[in-house]
Amino acid sequence: MYYDEAEKLSRLEIERLQLMRLQRTLRQAAKSPFYGALFRERGVDPEKVTSLADVRRLPFTTKQDLRDSYPDRLLAMPQSEMVRMHVSSGTTGTPTVIYHTKRDLDWWASLMARCMHMVGLRKTDVFQNMSGYGLFTGGLGIHCGAEKLGCLTIPAGAGNSQRQIKLLMDFKVTGIHIIPSYALHLSTVFAGLGIDPRTLPLRIALVGAEPYTEEARRRLEAMYDMKVYNSYGLSEMNGPGVAFECQEQHGMHVWEDAYLAEIVDPQTGEPLPDGELGELVMTSLGREGMPIIRYRTRDLTRFLTGQCPCGRVHRRIDRLQGRCDDMMIVKGVNIFPMQIERILMSMPEVGQDYLIILERDGYIDNIRIKVEIREEYFVEDMRTLAVLQKRIASRLRDEILVTPRVELVEHNSLPKSDGKAARVCDRRGEGA
Amino acid sequence: MYYDEAEKLSRLEIERLQLMRLQRTLRQAAKSPFYGALFRERGVDPEKVTSLADVRRLPFTTKQDLRDSYPDRLLAMPQSEMVRMHVSSGTTGTPTVIYHTKRDLDWWASLMARCMHMVGLRKTDVFQNMSGYGLFTGGLGIHCGAEKLGCLTIPAGAGNSQRQIKLLMDFKVTGIHIIPSYALHLSTVFAGLGIDPRTLPLRIALVGAEPYTEEARRRLEAMYDMKVYNSYGLSEMNGPGVAFECQEQHGMHVWEDAYLAEIVDPQTGEPLPDGELGELVMTSLGREGMPIIRYRTRDLTRFLTGQCPCGRVHRRIDRLQGRCDDMMIVKGVNIFPMQIERILMSMPEVGQDYLIILERDGYIDNIRIKVEIREEYFVEDMRTLAVLQKRIASRLRDEILVTPRVELVEHNSLPKSDGKAARVCDRRGEGA
Ligand SMILES: [Zn+2]
Ligand SMILES: [Zn+2]
């Protein structure tokens, strides 16, 4: 039932293992020029970390730190021990680079194989990887996991839809790795060929790399008659294989034998209680070549509370809720547009668009939300609409802890830029 | 000095090993539907192959056989034992597919690592693979060899020249895999950036996948101040790692512990003596998942005679001389355009273009060759030109064993199609 021993660990065993590996990781990190200097400067002594709670006293590592350390100031071992690097192009000038030793790669492939095994893939499966290869970790990362698990792995790469479909059919592919937008596109190519993708033996899709909604997942599952599982990874923590959904499809288990995960307030860096939305912070616990301590992922999620029915105690994180850089602070409270969107989209009366307006009345911040209502509801009488308005405001207050002013507006009445709705408008800096 | 024991084998040891592995390979191949049926039909009994010479009694396998066996009639083990496939798109409709077990992949990576070690790459090297990844074997094939050897491997993939150059410089890359035309293109990008590639720490380039001349090799070596080594491989025999130049840069050693190579007459299939140009035929000696017996590569080369000064006794093949499908038969003799080109291009008086015309006088075939002469030579007196004409004819006769009629023509006087010279014109079928 389990791929390896680590999946069966109890909470206590996980925490014991984490502490041991955290200590080892800190000692290893201290050998790198970057952490060596940082630890000296901040007075960090790896030997004085004696409990997992001590991790909070360690400094964070940011994307900017990685850029400033380019190309090799984070190496904890001689470069001759490294056998691969992945480079993220990034949107700014300086790339970030992650190095791996042979042992690091084996460990990464094992974690990835464990993810795939968890969702039901076996060595008898034929697995088509539709990810671009090369410097992007989705290609080689998933590929090596699939080979390690023993699947017949087809390194199809990205694009060339006709060939993808030919491979899927000719080799009776049962598992795929695909990005959601491409899966939707591919279904139109199937339609053009007059082939119903539900007739394929395809059972399982691994999906990551792009934010997408639960609704989109269910649509893909129906279109292809397959199960779709969410994957979370980032190149700084290897790539895919960091957190993965089990067959419950309710949150992604973080492999806590390999990563120490925290959720912190993106503003203060203070830890947040389980269930609260915040920034995911990750520490690698198994990497020897280039350990990274308390990496600020800028990704927003929360720990899910309670036990997963699958039996694994590795903590689950929620579907990603966007990036920290989208965060708004209103009346001292952190609010993320995704929180508002999720509530609005769960209400059948609400249409596709909304606009969040931040304003200042004297010294007090206010949040005003214009919400498009579906045509069929807008014809209702004023009283019904007033009730709806109150219900929306109340649901939002429960989520964001601030009461917004809700305005219901007609379908297609909100401004759009580039055909895409503008979601947030901050007017607090505008005049007195 | 050597990467592994197999490099040190004596001729006798190689042949003993080859026979043992050929027998094992035949027994293994017999388990596949394709060879099972073929062996029964042709009365091949693997147990009756008792000497290497017996290989000549085995049937050939052609590209068409692979197409007809699509997708899995060549599998000698259950598909669940396979962990990767590479698919060649080919130019025609049906692709060919090669399957690998985990053991097959390890073996392939070791052969590739041996090639790289032979030309001087070590685990201290930084190696940038500029090959496309995915289904094409040049990506993952070279990549896995480089990782196995322990080089710091950069999976750069194809294209994006500015990034390639940034990686080459930032990571002090010492070894690359690149196709010749791209290496030439990249040098112009370097020039545009005002960077002299000779100032990079680059030492070694592995080059394959495209036919190119010795002159082009020397030009690349000078441009980048690096050594360029030729690589030969084909996906049917895994991909790169089949034959590789040693530091002598004189012919490519075929790894005879892993492959049984023959040179045959492309018309009759009969073996040719060492030194004669013919079709390379390959048998895999180490593949368990999908052995291939006597594969007709359609590639033209010859065995080089004599000992290689490097000390390795694995036989060397010459630089590829084109494809069998270009073969002409004149007066019962097989002639390849590349043979003629090579002689012409070695003579300083000859320009860039030539035209081979095949004609029939009654029942007798004739070969006529129009040769463009460089401008500075064409101004010579008639007697000098007549001497040159005779010298060209004599040199060609020594190579192709037929005396051609040579006509010297002025620079730019030959017909071109699409800007490229038309090389062969067969008029033997025209009229009476
Ligand atoms: Zn679970
Ligand atoms: Zn040699």
Structural description of this entry:
The structure is a homodimer of 432-residue chains. With 432 residues, the first copy, chain A, is α/β, with parallel strands linked by helices. Chain A folds into two domains: 1-325, ANL, N-terminal domain (Rossmann fold, 3-Layer(aba) Sandwich), CATH 3.40.50.12780; 327-426, GMP Synthetase, Chain A, domain 3. Chain A is 30% helix and 25% strand. The first copy, chain A, has helices spanning 11-29, 33-42, 63-68, 102-118, 137-149, 161-170, 180-192, 214-224, 337-345, 375-378, 382-400, and strands spanning 82-88, 96-101, 126-129, 152-154, 175-178, 204-207, 227-234, 239-245, 252-254, 259-264, 278-284, 295-301, 316-317, 328-330, 333-335, 350-361, 364-373, 405-409, 416-417, 420-421, 424-426. An eight-stranded mixed beta sheet of chain A has the order 4-3-5-6-7-8-9-13. In chain A, strands 18-17-16-21 form a four-stranded mixed beta sheet. In chain A, strands 10-11-12 form a three-stranded antiparallel beta sheet. In chain A, strand 1 and strand 2 (96-101) form a beta hairpin. In chain A, helix 4 crosses helix 5, helix 7 runs parallel beside helix 8 and helix 9 (337-345) packs across helix 11. The first copy, chain A, is globular and about 70 Å long. The model of chain A has no long low-confidence stretch (mean pLDDT 92). The interface between A and B is large, with 40 and 39 residues. The structure holds zinc ion (2 copies). Chains A, B: It holds the Pfam family AMP-binding_C_2. Chains A, B: It catalyses: 2-phenylacetate + ATP + CoA = phenylacetyl-CoA + AMP + diphosphate. Chains A, B: Residues 77-283 form the AMP-dependent synthetase/ligase domain. Chains A, B: Keywords: Ligase, Nucleotide-binding.
